[in-house]
Structure formats: structure tokens, C-alpha cells
């Protein structure tokens, strides 16, 4: 123990209180880091801060030891078992706390400077050297070991605390480039503040030691500072409060990293959604329109053999469809919203799609309800492509002779059921292609739902429900 550093007596209760605050600042710093630290941080500082937390907790306990270890126990030195436990454990905990400080600085600076992996043994070697010095200079159990306690505390401050605080300050100062991408300007200020506080602690907590018969302890020591009118204890307390304050504020790095990762995740999701939108739009729109043109040309070939007089009119219709496909493609590439040119009324929009789609078989349309329904631009686009996909599938795969389209205009949304008497298919079959996947995605994106009922030889019925205006979410009745 080193009572010369701390004046801990009943008459000096002010110093007792200050050193209690000194220990409390370090303890709360360490506890706060452990509460805030995130596992799996991608930042070097974020990964290394838990080491600084153990330094804070252990060193806070050490400083409280000067307050709470009874004077009688201190005077026992190592002559009793109780003295060995309290006094020896107190000094050992001091060395351990500085070990974590040195470990934090070496690993953080080593990561950014790309030091070799064996750098991790440097703190362990320094701690081992300190233990070896303590064992080598131990005077014996039955002797007065107070001077020995002072010497090994000086050795801990010189060998562990001074390089630990200095390297930690340099390491924190070097984190500016890595944290720049987080786009939080206050982090740079907190980095500079934390580094400056650690440099100050290098002097107050590392170099300022009791007088000893060797350099630099025989020149720069607590007595020298006292003669200058600045107690070493005051400098140590002040530096510890600054370290704790700036490290607390530097914990914002975890929140900044989390916000940055959320932004990157949203960006990735937006890119993915845009790619999915492009895939859906090309599949449901352009490709279906081109396929409709191919079916029209096939129909013209049949008309050429049976009714050549009707070919010219049909070819004129196909040329207009081709021009529309080209216009839609240009519009799509220009980034325009197709929904703006589609009618907002769902019934009118369904009629428009059935007028454009080439569907083999008799189509019967039934509309129930007379609500004045309005769809927003995105919903119109989803409904347009859903209808186009369903009718195209009927033409290509169903082989149906009859198609029924029922539209129910309900109070909060509308239901569309499209049924055919075609071949049908197994809805439990794996896969299903892009078409069925797109239908489900578009229904969900429009705020509704979709059901497909089919079985081989019994036709197919596709039912979907969408809300009006996209503001309300609907559910199955």
C-alpha cells in the first residue's frame, strides 16, 4: 500500500471523497463500456473498447481500496493472512488494471498500423516482467514490506501505466480515418479529447510516483509537484474524470455504427427491391406484350390461310401494339411511372388490360358493387401487370375455352377472381416459375393478398384482393 500518495485519514475526509469520486469515474466508465459494447463490431475501436472497460472497473476498485481497506489491515503488511489477501490483492489488482490498459492500446494501435500478430504478447511480457521484479525484490513475510509496496507500485506505473496510457492515446488519435465514414463530426472531437485525457493521465497516473532512489522517481515525483503547489492527487483525479467523460462520449461510436449499418442495409434493400422491380416489370410487362405480339402473328398466319381479307386489319392492330411496346420500353427506360397513364378506376383498368391482351376463349365479366374506387399510381401498375400475367398464363398454358372475371367492389377494397376451364395444375408442385412468384409479390406490395386454386383437369381460379388507395391493409374475410 502507498499511504503517502493519498493522505487518507479521518481529518482529510475531503481527499477521501475526491478519491472515491476518482475510483467511481473509472468504475462507471468500465461498466458503461460493457453495457454499450456491441458484439461483432466491425470497427477496431469497437472491438477493443471492452479491454478498456476492464481497466476502468479494476482500477476503480483499486482506488476504492485506498478508502475502504482498514488502516489496521494496511499496517499488518504481509505479516498476517488478512494482510496478504487485502494488501497483496490490492497491489496485484493495480497491475492487472494497467495490463488491460496496455493491452487496449497495443492491440488498437497494432490493428491500425498492421503490427505482427505477436504484438499481443507485449502486454503479457510487460506484466510478467513486473511480477518478476515484485518477486525478486520481496523482502520476506515477516518484515516491514511497506517500502516494497511503494516500489512495486512505482514499477507498475512505469512499466504498465505509462506505456499503456501513452499508446492508448496514440491509438485513439489514429482512429479518425476509420470513423470518418460514419459521418458523425462529434466523434472526431471526442477522439481528440479522449487522447488528450490519456496523455494527461500518462503524466498524472504513470510518471507521477512517490520519491525513490532512482531516475526519474528521484526527480519527477509527488514531492516535486507538491512544491509547485499542484498535488499529484489533484492532477490524477482531474485526468481520470476527463478520461471517463470522453470515453463515455466516445461510446457514441456504437450508435453511429448501428445507424450506418441500418443505412447500408436500407440501401441494399432498396437496390434489391429495384432489381426485383426491374425483373417483375420486364417479365410481366415487356415480355408479356412481346409474347402477345407473337400470338397475334401466329393468329395472322392462320387467318392468311382461312380468311386472308382479315389479315390487313389484324396486322394493323399488331403494328399498333408493337408501337405501344416500344413506347412502354422507352418510358420504362426513362424511369417514368406507368401507373400515371393507367386509369385509377380498377374496373376500367381491368377492361383496359383485357382489351390489350389476346385471350383465346370466351370471356365473361361480372361486376358487383358500385363504389367509386380510386387506386394510386403504384397500385395501378401492380394491378395492370397482375392481370396481364394471369391472362397471358391462361392463353399460353391453360388451353381454356371459357374465362370468367368477377370483380367485387367492397367497402375497403376490391376483389378480383379470374377462373378458367383449362388444364389446371398442381398448386403444391415445387417451383412455379417467376410468374407465380411475381403475382404474390405484387399483391403484397400493393397491400393485399392472392390465392390460387387449381387441380389437373379442373381449371384454375386466381383470386386477389387489393385495398383502395394503398392506405388501408385488408385481410381475408
Automatic annotation (TrEMBL):
Residues 378-470 form the Histidine kinase/HSP90-like ATPase domain. It holds the Pfam family HATPase_c. The chain crosses the membrane at residues 15-35, 47-69, 89-109, 121-141, 147-173, 194-214, 234-254. One of its GO terms (cellular component) is membrane. Keywords: ATP-binding, Kinase, Membrane, Nucleotide-binding, Phosphoprotein, Transferase, Transmembrane, Transmembrane helix, Two-component regulatory system. It catalyses: ATP + protein L-histidine = ADP + protein N-phospho-L-histidine. GO terms for molecular function: ATP binding; phosphorelay sensor kinase activity; protein dimerization activity. The keyword Cell membrane does not apply. Its EC number is 2.7.13.3. Signal peptide: none annotated. It is an enzyme of class 2 (transferase). The keyword Nucleus does not apply. PANTHER family: NITRATE/NITRITE SENSOR PROTEIN NARX-RELATED (PTHR24421), NITRATE_NITRITE SENSOR PROTEIN NARQ (PTHR24421:SF10). This is histidine kinase. It comes from Neomoorella humiferrea. The gene is liaS_1.
Amino acid at each position: 500500500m502507498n499511504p503517502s500518495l493519498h493522505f487518507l485519514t479521518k481529518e482529510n475526509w475531503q481527499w477521501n471523497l475526491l478519491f472515491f469520486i476518482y475510483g467511481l469515474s473509472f468504475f462507471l466508465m468500465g461498466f458503461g463500456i460493457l453495457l454499450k459494447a456491441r458484439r461483432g463490431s466491425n470497427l477496431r475501436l469497437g472491438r477493443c473498447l471492452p479491454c478498456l472497460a476492464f481497466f476502468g472497473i479494476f482500477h476503480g476498485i483499486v482506488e476504492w481500496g485506498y478508502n475502504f481497506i482498514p488502516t489496521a489491515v494496511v499496517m499488518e503488511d504481509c505479516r498476517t493472512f488478512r494482510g496478504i489477501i487485502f494488501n497483496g490483492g490490492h497491489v496485484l489488482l493495480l497491475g492487472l488494471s494497467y495490463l488491460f490498459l496496455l493491452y487496449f492500446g497495443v492491440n488498437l494501435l497494432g490493428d491500425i498500423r498492421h503490427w505482427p500478430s505477436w504484438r499481443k504478447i507485449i502486454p503479457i511480457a510487460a506484466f510478467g516482467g513486473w511480477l518478476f521484479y515484485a518477486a525478486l525484490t520481496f523482502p520476506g513475510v515477516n518484515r516491514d514490506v511497506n517500502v516494497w509496496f511503494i516500489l512495486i507500485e512505482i514499477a507498475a506505473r512505469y512499466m504498465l501505466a505509462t506505456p499503456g496510457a501513452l499508446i492508448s492515446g496514440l491509438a485513439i488519435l489514429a482512429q479518425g480515418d476509420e470513423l470518418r465514414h460514419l459521418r458523425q463530426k462529434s466523434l472526431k472531437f471526442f477522439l481528440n479529447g479522449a487522447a488528450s485525457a490519456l496523455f494527461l493521465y500518462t503524466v498524472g497516473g504513470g510518471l507521477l510516483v512517490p520519491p525513490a532512489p532512482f531516475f526519474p522517481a528521484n526527480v519527477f515525483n509527488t514531492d516535486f509537484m507538491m512544491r509547485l503547489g499542484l498535488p499529484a492527487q489533484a492532477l490524477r483525479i482531474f485526468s481520470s474524470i476527463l478520461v471517463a467523460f470522453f470515453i463515455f462520449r466516445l461510446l457514441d461510436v456504437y450508435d453511429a455504427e448501428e445507424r450506418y449499418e441500418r443505412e447500408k442495409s436500407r440501401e441494399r434493400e432498396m437496390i434489391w427491391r429495384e432489381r426485383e422491380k426491374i425483373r417483375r416489370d420486364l417479365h410481366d410487362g415487356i415480355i408479356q406484350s412481346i409474347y402477345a405480339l407473337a400470338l397475334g402473328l401466329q393468329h395472322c398466319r392462320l387467318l392468311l390461310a382461312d380468311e386472308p381479307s382479315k389479315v390487313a386489319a389484324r396486322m394493323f392492330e399488331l403494328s399498333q401494339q408493337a408501337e405501344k411496346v416500344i413506347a412502354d420500353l422507352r418510358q420504362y427506360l426513362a424511369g417514368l411511372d406507368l401507373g400515371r397513364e393507367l386509369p385509377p378506376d380498377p374496373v376500367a383498368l381491368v377492361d383496359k388490360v383485357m382489351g390489350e391482351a389476346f385471350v383465346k376463349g370466351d370471356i365473361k365479366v361480372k361486376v358487383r358493387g358500385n363504389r367509386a374506387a380510386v387506386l394510386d399510381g403504384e397500385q395501378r401498375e401492380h394491378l395492370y401487370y397482375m392481370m396481364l400475367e394471369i391472362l397471358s398464363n391462361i392463353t399460353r398454358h391453360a388451353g381454356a375455352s371459357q374465362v370468367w372475371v368477377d370483380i367485387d367492389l367492397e367497402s375497403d377494397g376490391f376483389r378480383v377472381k379470374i377462373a378458367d376451364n383449362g388444364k389446371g395444375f398442381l398448386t403444391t408442385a415445387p417451383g412455379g416459375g417467376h410468374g407465380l412468384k411475381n403475382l404474390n409479390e405484387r399483391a403484397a406490395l400493393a397491400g393485399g393478398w392472392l390465392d390460387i386454386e387449381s387441380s389437373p383437369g379442373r381449371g384454375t381460379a386466381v383470386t386477389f384482393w387489393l385495398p383502395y388507395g394503398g392506405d388501408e391493409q385488408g385481410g381475408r374475410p
